[in-house]
Amino acid sequence: MSRYSVFSLLRHAATGNRGWQRAWRAAAPKASYDVVIVGGGGHGLATAFYLAESHGIRNVAVLEKGYIGGGNVGRNTTVIRSNYLLDGNTQFYEFSMKLWEGMSAALNFNVMFSQRGQLVTAHSADQLDTFSHRANVMRSNGIDAEILDRDAVRKLVPYLDFSDTARFPIHGAIFQGRAGTARHDAVAWGYARAASGHGVDIIEGCEVTDFVRQGDRIVGVETTRGRIGAGKVGLAVAGHTSVLAQKAGLELPIESHLLQAFVTEPIKPLVDHVVAYGADHFYLSQSDKGGLVFGGNLDGYNSYSQRGNTGVLREVCEAAIALMPNISRLRLLRHWGGIMDMTPDASPIISLTPVDGLYLNGGWCYGGFKATPASGWCFAEMLATGETPALVRGYGLGRFRSGHMIDEAGAGPFAWLQ
Amino acid sequence: MLRIDCPCCGTRDHSEFRYGGDATVERPACDNPDLDAWYRYVYVRPNPKGLHREYWQHVLGCRQWLVVERDTVTHSIHSVSFSRRQRA
Hints:
The structure holds two protein chains of two kinds. Chain A has helices at 6-14, 42-55, 89-101, 103-107, 125-140, 150-156, 184-197, 241-247, 310-323, 368-385, 399-402; strands at 32-38, 60-63, 79-80, 118-122, 146-149, 172-176, 180-181, 201-203, 208-214, 217-223, 226-235, 255-264, 274-277, 282-286, 292-302, 332-342, 349-352, 358-362. By secondary structure, chain A is an alpha/beta fold. In chain A, helix 2 (42-55) runs parallel beside helix 7, helix 2 crosses helix 10 (368-385) and helix 3 crosses helix 10 (368-385). In chain B, 15% of the residues lie in helices and 38% in strands. Chain B has a four-stranded antiparallel sheet with strand order 3-4-5-6. Chain B has a two-stranded antiparallel ribbon with strand order 1-2. The termini of chain B are far apart. Chain A binds chain B through residues 240, 242-243, 246, 251-256, 300-305, 309-311, 344, 400-401, 413-416, and chain B through 1-2, 13-15, 19, 21-22, 35-36, 39-40, 42-47, 49, 52, 54, 70, 72-75.
């Protein structure tokens, strides 16, 4: 695999850009691998990369039923932040942030990580108090956080509604300067290319239909491209975790729900940060092409269809113009949906399972994209050592039984309310 | 928009309803000391890809709790009935 650099750019430019090679090998499945990772999304690819890079395990396959970048890794709103309140989440997402900061260099692939800063608006003194609590937790964990008053917010993002008629007047905000966005498909491509460069087979169009057992142990998978043996199987199929886990005889505290994302027609630079609305569920950023990328609530009922409902579109747009009346005349370019694993506490699952040979990575709710590198890092360590890494000890399957939930949303055990 | 045929009010948009989750889970008896039974009741869900029996409450209509059989892939609704009859 040739390295990308300014010199390779110049060399290919001089030869008419006809010599570029494909970024990763189109591998055909071998009879067996040391580790088979089911799911070629961001998490599965990152896991394969760190297995090879950090643990020297290179006889690895990533099986993707569709194509690389076609699932949730290409469907999210690309926001990256580490402003979590609860122990377990705070440290995990900050570890992820640190990996983001070195990702382009580590992968030799420009993932266009842009630390433009994220703010969440507060709309009452009490809400700003809770944000101060969060900021203090963040700072005590070495994470940057600022509390802004109304004037400071106005200086930073003057285009929000600061008029006397604002539905929920802005009282202040919490701001994390290191938060931002990255180009999501570049993340998938970058990990795929780097993993492939280490010898990992990335097999697209290969759907896992069942597991192969030897006694109580899982020793491989049945796929649409034949049987593939595996020393260990790692599931990284968030959205469809229940479907595959059921084939392995696992019952999970997960429901699949649909989350939509939206993008407007491109406009000139307006939104320099990631902005989240504290009075409703709405957040937006501006893409490099100029479109305003935004999202809001789940559709609210179990779904495996990657199609959204127009009712949510209306609700999200209502929140948008309550915060930013100046975008009310913009036209929507596209909207799309992705299927989330929703857990009862809105926190993910990276866990050993009661099934020998099967390891679980799922339940990402809508925090999956920002977690991509840390999730891959920790899941790779779990697959390599058979032990739970300290950083994800709070993310075990057993926490629901023992009552040690990390319930960041505090919404009760209702998947659709998280 | 889903259109739910409420047996009391007729066919209405789902925005008139509140979702209540999986209708197949059974609440253990109050004096059941089995922690596992309670764990399964509160947290574990079959989460089927296909037909799903689920609760909806017609909050902006008759306020009845209904059981709706809906396909989670196509969103087509196969049946709607009062949940109280299911329980009888």
